[in-house]
Amino acid sequence: MSTKIKAITSPPSREELSDRLERVREKMKEQDLDYYVSSDPVNIYYLTNFAFYVHERPFILVIPIEGLPKMLIPLLEKGHFEERVRCDVDTVTYYEFPARDGENWHDLYQELIEKDAKVGVESIMPVGFVNKTPGYQIVTDILEEVRIIKTDYEIGRTIHACKVANKGHRVLLKKCRPRVLEFALYKEVTDAMTSKIVQDIPNANFKVTDTMGVV
Fold first, then answer.
1. Closest CA to 33 of 24, 21, 42
2. Is 3.40.50.1950 the CATH classification of the domain at 14-146?
3. pLDDT digits over 164-182, tens only?
4. Domain locations in the chain?
């Protein structure tokens, strides 16, 4: 770690994301896994820089012990994914309901994993996804473990988040007076933090950026 880390507002580099993937694979080797599968949007964002809202459509990242990871996504999200992803990954798209046989997400998903493989799955993975996963499944939260140790880049982003919170706190102290409505304080503080983010990161991804003033 550097002796002094400054606030960082840029997206993660390919090198940063590659290092994260390598640490995941080190854990996979320790557990003798052939694949690791993630459907948690936070973990997928951590490895790819792609963020999404969880609804009924599966987004699944399949990590083999060697070779490029494969990202299974709805065809309609292909443009969004390619715009945000910042690592090398194979994209596999599927048609949504009512898809023809062979074009559903689970048809394509099962082609990405060998039938006799040892596959690590997250403890929070929906049971419907687990039931469609080929091979021998082992529940293990590898990514949760990897994310515990922060890189200089992650600390730099945290420093910037603290600067945003500090801006909100200063506005709160300035505006907090007798007879001022709590809702008004909430709006002033939230607006100040959001403005700070937009000024520092003009193309901020608000699917992974949230501000809230709490009084």
1. 24
2. no
3. 999 999 999 999 889 888 8
4. 14-146, 152-200
DSSP strand pairing (136-139 vs 60-64): unpaired
How far is residue 56's CA from residue 58's CA, in Å, rounded to a whole number? Answer: 7
Helices (H) and strands (E) in the chain, counts: 8, 6
- Report whether pLDDT(212) > 70: no
Count CB atoms within 10 A of the CB of residue 80. Answer: 15
DSSP 133: -
Q: Which residues, other chains included, contact 174 with Cβ-Cβ below 8 Å and sequence gap of 6+? A: none
pLDDT tens for each residue of 90-123? 999 999 888 788 889 999 999 999 999 999 999 9
Quote the strand ranges of the chain, DSSP E: 35-38, 60-64, 70-74, 90-94, 118-121, 136-139
- Counting every residue written for the chain, the total comes to 215
Half-sphere exposure of 37 (CA within 13 A, CB side): 29
* Cα angle value 202/16/121 (rounded, 5°): 105
Whole-angstrom distance, CA of residue 163 vs CA of residue 8: 11
Backbone angles phi, psi at 47, to 5 degrees: -95, -20
